[in-house]
Specification:
single chain; globular; disordered C terminus; about 0% strand; mainly alpha
Length: about 300
Amino acid sequence: MQKYLSKKWIAMSLAFLCTLLWGSAYPVIKLAYRELSVSSVGDKLMFAGVRFILSGLMVFAVAFIIRKRFPVVEPKKWGWVLLYGAVQTGLMYLFNYIGVANTSATKTSVLTALSAFLSVLFAPLFFRNEKLSLWKIIGIVLGFAGIAVVNFSSLDASFALMGEGFVMIAALLNTAGGFIGKKISQGKVFETTAYQLLFGGVLLAVFALILGGNMAINLKSMLFVLYLAFVSAAAFLIWTALLVYNEAGQILIFNLMIPVTGAFWSFVILGEREIFDPMYLLSVALIAAGIVLVNSHRKPLENSTK
């Protein structure tokens, strides 16, 4: 697997595929909230919890079909796997959902882009084979500019802990989750992905219950949640494998593409036309240039950490 996933064009293509999958989730979630009358934070967290529990079960099923055995985690890795699920899915989405509910979509997209910036900046501190170069710095600045330029006119200086603050915490958790996943997933991509999604989903469901959340179970709700569960299962499996065999920063930089692909799918699914705005086209160009620069001169990565 490493032979193929460490090739530049394959890794970049698969990372972009992940952003397409995750980008499609935004308008589908928006449509689901509207169709199912989901409004409170508790209800949204319950919807997310069910989604990720089903995602974990899907990965378990795929692993069993491919390997003919149930995915098992070594006892010494259980703590890391549970931490991975708590950080990458449970806590990250908890802070993200609450933060998004208390700030604008504009600020959310800009602040979420911090995750990609931080991943490139801090990866050399945790992985000895990753280096911070001038090209990477220029690339991440271009990518962040691509997010900022399309939102600049809508930004303001206001700040609230449970709004912008929680979105920033979610971005930090997303970066940390990527690093943890890379550290523990060598040779165990199915196992770590399945358990982290399942455990993260359970955590979200527990938080939802505390906040009084619930979810109506009917054909319409299950169709929505099954699609979103598939998106998470497929994207996280591919993403985790890419992190194992490539530099973390060079994969996590693709997080910058998610708002762009989200805008594209919002046009396809909801008819929203922001993607045709000239500023969006400039944003795409800047982000694409940034990703190319961060991924330039990359070499296959040995799996070693500090």
